[in-house]
Predict the structure.
Amino acid sequence: MKLYSYFRSSAAYRVRIALNLKKLEAEVIPIHLLKNGGEQHSAAYRQINPSELVPALLEANAEQGFTLTQSLSILEYLDEKFTDTVLLPKNIQQRALIRAFSQSIACDIHPLNNLRVLQYLSAALEVSDEQKTAWYTHWIEVGFAGLEAQLKHSNGQFCFGNSASFADCCLIPQVYNALRFNIDLSAYPKIQSIYTHCNTLSAFQNAAPEAQADAA
Amino acid sequence: MKLYSYFRSSAAYRVRIALNLKKLEAEVIPIHLLKNGGEQHSAAYRQINPSELVPALLEANAEQGFTLTQSLSILEYLDEKFTDTVLLPKNIQQRALIRAFSQSIACDIHPLNNLRVLQYLSAALEVSDEQKTAWYTHWIEVGFAGLEAQLKHSNGQFCFGNSASFADCCLIPQVYNALRFNIDLSAYPKIQSIYTHCNTLSAFQNAAPEAQADAA
């Protein structure tokens, strides 16, 4: 497998964590989202992902080849295909709650704060840096309040119990980003405690932006 | 089951389509996103969904009760629980491609153009109506180009072959919204043809905003 990745991409970071937790190997191919006007916009990469976003997963050995985009879809695919270590439990309600938590990040927080949106705010809407920080902070705070509430009954080391799931694959990169933007997380003790725990584990450490070859 | 819905919510519309395709009954409880400062922000609704968004699905008869948020998580739950008519095929690669397509809408297009974001652009960033239309149009055009490319090999009546899937549940509401904002869709012939076909079917017709009790 090949993973098209950018070290700081939160969505690629989710997939890197999942691959590590599941002990799967993938060759990481860096796509620099800033250099050369953004390598994700190149003709070569558009062949891989016409949506011009990372990550993308290429299964070179699958019949007829197979390229998959969207981090949560990649997580589902890996979990259905490689079942030694799974990141969703069997219980239908638990699976649903874990997916809802993951989508609260992937659909309601991250899309508003990713690079292309911040670029549009500056370039097309000419918002100030201060307004951009307020925008970023607003969606983190609204979103994290909802996440913390979803974790209300959580008493394990991970978001849902004592095994890592899709939820942790999504939460850790989102917290990493929030900290990078100096957001105060003191209102979210469950989130903080899960973040601290996950980052003691090599699967999470080795997926972090600064551990990537393209972080240099 | 009870579905907390708003007639114009694209995410609630996805779930209404899925319920109809699967021939499942749910009592629809309208949450008006504009009246009374937005009923989704009320204390009563925050108990149901702390993220203050629609839809939410309440399984009153499940053990200990069970409330589920996030439209795609609800679709997965319904498809795992009620298997007479399924909206994801068994093939792992096909499932992955359908989920990726659905997430291209739910993660990359819709979150940027929903009500709370447009409200923030006006209220906090004081962007003009013209700039707001340009913002809306930009994310639709970028997103729809990616969707049309994902449909390149599609030759069926639906997004993926001749059965409805999660992809159609997501696409039809997104196209409906784009048309409401008068976006020119002539560059997306596959999307247009799937939209036209789906809207000949009662499952889609009965899920449309104007068919809802709260549309009055």
Summary: Chain B touches chain A through 48 residues (CB under 8 Å). The CA atoms of residues 155 and 161 of chain B lie 7 Å apart. Chain B is about 50% helix and 5% strand.
